[in-house]
Design a protein that fits this description.
It holds the Pfam family HTH_18. The chain is α+β, with helices and mostly antiparallel strands. It has two domains: 172 residues, Regulatory protein AraC (Jelly Rolls), CATH 2.60.120.280; 107 residues, Homeodomain-like (Arc Repressor Mutant, subunit A, Orthogonal Bundle), CATH 1.10.10.60. The protein contains ten helices and eight strands. Strands 1, 2, 3, 4, 5, 6, 7 and 8 form an eight-stranded mixed sheet that branches. The longest helix is centred in the middle third of the chain and has 23 residues. The radius of gyration is 20 Å and the shape is globular.
Length: 292
């Protein structure tokens, strides 16, 4: 697979000879790595991708942010994120691939899973370093999931749903405890709603006032709120999403800069180039050369 093209995997592609009729896979990382050597190149998934490490080191790049791999680390990735791995020596751990629809028959709230902070889509928020006690508890849950995925017992997939949700809750509690700020619940709801709107409309809507109107708050309040929660203004968050998509598209060498500018709804190629250079310190062409 060429590094100049982002390949998108679905669960069936990564099935390792096993059916994925229930849209979930649980695999030891050593087996996963042996079967899918191309994951060292940038690629993306059409499903939620979890990786937990119990041994080894290296680096993991998610949406062009680089993180060191170490034991006790748990990665949560949402569909569409571009990522690649680089490992030093042997690594051990677990991988879970799960489609968003896996929980739909089990939960009345289709958006329940998205409420967990590590599924925000922000790369750094999806990387969790677990303390020793929590790491042991999570490893036990992964082992139980491995048993269930191989079982022919009744309700095995329902048990997998329960085990995954238990893990999500445990990890969420750990991350909340490590956050010294005690935000009221409605702040997380507002932040989640804003991020969802940006994800849906960033191609066409670039002004904070447009999102503020949809959220029934003032533009000043939205900007102050975003600075409080994320250290960035609402405008910066919208802009960062546009730049991220530009970077994702620029990996595909066969797509011209002019086409990317058009896809991102810029008036012309020149305006897109100036916008990208202003915030990234290099032109789109230079960025493409640096990652090739």
């Amino acid at each position: 697979m060429s590094k100049a093209h982002i390949h998108t995997y679905d669960i069936c592609t990564l099935g390792m000879g096993k059916p994925a009729s229930e849209n979930i896979q649980v695999i030891r990382f050593t087996d996963y790595l042996a079967a899918h050597k191309d994951i060292r190149f940038p690629h993306r998934h059409s499903f939620y991708h979890l990786a937990f490490f119990t041994k080894g080191k290296g680096a993991h790049t998610i949406d062009f942010e680089r993180f060191p791999v170490q034991a006790g680390q748990l990665y949560f990735m949402i569909p569409g994120q571009v990522h690649s791995w680089f490992f030093e020596g042997q690594v051990e751990g677990y991988v879970v691939n799960v489609a968003a629809s896996f929980f739909n028959s089990f939960l009345q709230d289709a958006g329940y899973v998205e409420r967990f902070p590590f599924f925000s889509g922000a790369s750094a928020e999806g990387v969790v370093m677990l303390p020793a006690e929590a790491s042991t508890e999570v490893e036990v849950l992964f082992e139980k999931m491995l048993l269930e995925i191989e079982a022919t017992e009744a309700y095995s997939y329902d048990m997998l749903r329960l085990l995954l949700l238990e893990m999500f809750v445990k990890v969420s509690r750990v991350t909340r405890k490590s956050d010294t700020r005690q935000e009221p619940p409605y702040n997380y709801v507002l932040l989640s709603n804003f991020r969802k709107l940006v994800e849906q409309h960033y191609m066409q809507m670039r002004l904070p006032k447009e999102y503020a109107a949809m959220l029934y708050v003032t533009p000043n309040y939205l900007n102050a709120f975003c600075r409080h929660m994320l250290g960035k203004s609402a405008g910066e968050i919208i802009r960062d999403r546009v730049i991220l998509e530009a970077k994702r598209l620029l990996i595909n060498a066969d797509t011209s800069i002019a086409t990317i500018a058009y896809q991102l709804n810029f008036a012309d190629n020149s305006y897109f180039t100036k916008f990208f250079k202003k915030y990234e310190g290099m032109t789109p062409e230079e960025f493409r050369k640096n990652i090739s």
